[in-house]
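Need tokens for this chain, all 234 residues.
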Amino acid sequence: MKAFVLMIIGVCFPFATFAKEKSSDLQFDSLPYAFNALEPHIDAKTMEIHYTRHHRGYYDNLLNAMQDSSLKTKTLPQIFSQVSKLAPAIRNNAGGHYNHTLFWKVMSPKGGGAPEGMLAEKINATFGSFDKFKEEFKAAALSRFGSGWAWLCVGDDGSLFISSTPNQDNPLMDVSEKRGTPILGLDVWEHAYYLKYQNQRGSYIDAFWNVVNWPEVNARFISLVGNKKPPVKK
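Here are the structure tokens for all 234 residues:
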């Protein structure tokens, strides 16, 4: 009888769900644009493989690794804060899921140009200019031996810094040399660019600036530092 009632509810209300609620960062979000939307800078085939196979694989493997685990009630940042004590499957796949989720969102078919507002001011104050920032970011991405990521992060004190991490690590992890919250990330694993750029990682990095979603990055920055400028020292 109970099963019959549930079946009727499911028919009448097809969007009802009886699945156990998960934290928002353990969802596999839809790609916010079509596979070909970032062309010619990032090709459609790379996007399709990257999203449907690589990212999906990290997500599925993370769920499998977290079965019968108390970690299911924690957010990814909470997991990252103790990742050095956890199994490699958690570290690698949680990182892979988080990193790619951010990566898709900080790119846009309408991206490119330069940041504006508070983020632009902070970049100029920290790095000297937007062009110098891009040079330092590219250097971090190029110098990452093998696979990994380049990041623009916000420190606990509101400062900006550039860093690079290996594999699927990120600066939120307690294993990171310098910890902070990423607001911009670039995947420099070969699967992110090899079909189009082969071994020319530098060309891929240069193309990335044409699709950066600066309004999204700026929103992430403001969410961390607040909308108020620091007081002027007398």
